[in-house]
Amino acid sequence: QKEVEQNSGPLSVPEGAIASLNCTYSDRGSQSFFWYRQYSGKSPELIMFIYSNGDKEDGRFTAQLNKASQYVSLLIRDSQPSDSATYLCAVWVGALTFGSGTRLQVQP
Amino acid sequence: DAGVTQSPTHLIKTRGQQVTLRCSPKSGHDTVSWYQQALGQGPQFIFQYYEEEERQRGNFPDRFSGHQFPNYSSELNVNALLLGDSALYLCASSPRTGNYGYTFGSGTRLTVV
């Protein structure tokens, strides 16, 4: 079992819709959870991090954490074509461990 | 405020050769982690350095080695290159705990032919 699992996609949503990206992790001791965005040919950039169960909102982005279910999600409201990228879920247990990423396509 | 800088940006090497990649961390960061990202995959953790010592290591062979200097900059060395080592090599820096996430450099694209 992979430590961090994501659906590879692509996830295709129309412009203005809500994009929902999901991630599960295997280590119950994980304390910190991160979402990175990576445009093609570029390096990952941090979007959000979350430590506590529940929701954390930052602009159009909302991260959701459920430690009992070992599940992390990222919601992107009012999706824009510029949001088209690969979204990487990462879990910190001494070092950051990444999932394989979900490719998001926002259709104009 | 300078971010994480990596050099070179691109590199082509022949199978069996050795390569050294370089990284300068973001100002204020003392910990450097190296990742390998193959096409279509997420970054895979190679190792992490702080206080000039390797502190954690991922599932990579001994052909991969590193170093951290007193100014916190770091090198990644790969010996006896294989075709499968072709990837984007990412350096990330953070404060010691890393709880606030890592800042990534733009990466070095290594092609082994």
Overall pLDDT of chain A, averaged? 93
- Uncertain segments of chain A are none
State the share of residues found in helices of chain A, binned by percent.
Answer: under 10%
Q: Please trace the helix and strand order of chain B, writing H or E for each element.
A: EEEEEEEEEEE
Radius of gyration of chain A: 13 Å
Characterize the largest beta sheet of chain B: strand count, sense, and whether it forms a barrel: 7 strands, mixed
Give the DSSP E fraction of chain B (strand runs of 2 or more residues). Answer: over 45%
Descriptive notes:
The complex is a heterodimer of chains A (108) and B (113). With 108 residues, chain A is mainly beta. Chain A has no helices and eleven strands. Chain A has strands spanning 4-5, 11-14, 19-25, 32-38, 45-50, 54-58, 61-66, 71-76, 85-92, 96-98, 102-107. Chain A starts with a strand and ends with a strand. The model of chain A has no long low-confidence stretch (mean pLDDT 93). Chain B is mostly beta strands. Helices cover 0% and strands 50% of the residues of chain B. Chain B has strands spanning 5-7, 10-13, 19-24, 31-37, 44-50, 53-57, 64-68, 74-78, 87-94, 103-104, 108-112. In chain B, strands 2, 4, 5, 6, 9, 10 and 11 form a seven-stranded mixed beta sheet that branches. Chain B has a four-stranded antiparallel beta sheet with strand order 1-3-8-7, with no helix packed on it. In chain B, a hairpin with an 8-residue loop joins strand 9 (87-94) and strand 10 (103-104). The radius of gyration of chain B is 13 Å and the shape is globular. The model of chain B has no long low-confidence stretch (mean pLDDT 94). The chains are: A mainly beta (108), B mainly beta (113). Chain A binds chain B through residues 4, 6, 31-32, 34, 42-46, 49, 51, 88, 90, 92, 94-101, and chain B through 33, 35, 40-45, 48, 56, 58, 90, 92, 98-107.
